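Researcher: I'd like a structural prediction for the single chain below. Treat it as a standalone chain; there are no partners to consider.
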Amino acid sequence: MRERGDGSAILRAATGSDDDAAGWRLLLEALVFTGVGAVLLTTAGLPEAGIFSVFLGAAALSGRVGRLLDANREAIWVARESPWRANRRTAGSLVLLFVGMGLAFAALAAWTGPSGLRGTFGSALTGSAASGDIFSRRFDAGIGALLAHNLGALGVMVVLGFVYRSFGLLLAIGWNAALWSVTLTALIARGVERSSLADPLFVLGAVAAVAPHLLLELTGYVLGALGAAFASRGVTRYRRGDRRLGQVARAAVILIVVGVVVLALAALTEDRFAPWLLARLR
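Model: Treating it as a single chain, here is the predicted structure.
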């Protein structure tokens, strides 16, 4: 049997399972590998350990993402499963990886505290979290400006997914997981002092205010990067003129277009819903 030389093999050996994790176990896998790397580097006193832990998490899980893409291809071409169903399952798995990595970074950010974020995560990940709170964050900058920002981020993820495939896709997911977790943890922690609500109620309300548009953004980014990764694999697996190359190209374009539509919905939600709910948390 061919050895799967990635971090997932450690968990399979520990649990005695021959199958890859799925569902909540996939989330736990991302949480464990990202968290272990973050804790080890932080306790060792490495400057900007949070940034390096993004790369460690991506390295540990990149083989797992590669197998998700392989399973997607086999489901469509061998099992003749509906592409929409197969792609939805793969995108959902990538979202679970994001959530697992995000939880690890949020825990590290909460442990570090707002004052220690720059030393742990560096200026690249703490730029918008260095000052201010959740109330001072401009969520209503305008749908056009928000969408333009989202599309710029999507463009970066598409390039990473096409050029670097599994590792690039996972690196983009991990970077955004760290960025969002660090920023929200710091801004919400400072916002507690300005709210008249009980701390747990305020935290839940703040998360509820930003979670809808962030989940939509994440879905849009994942769909676009997934389409780019499929296109990259297609141009290297199939020769020009092969009908399968055309089908892969069409599927990739559809995924990216759907991603753009989802990002437009994210911009609308961020512009309207987040400010409305945050105004009621003061």
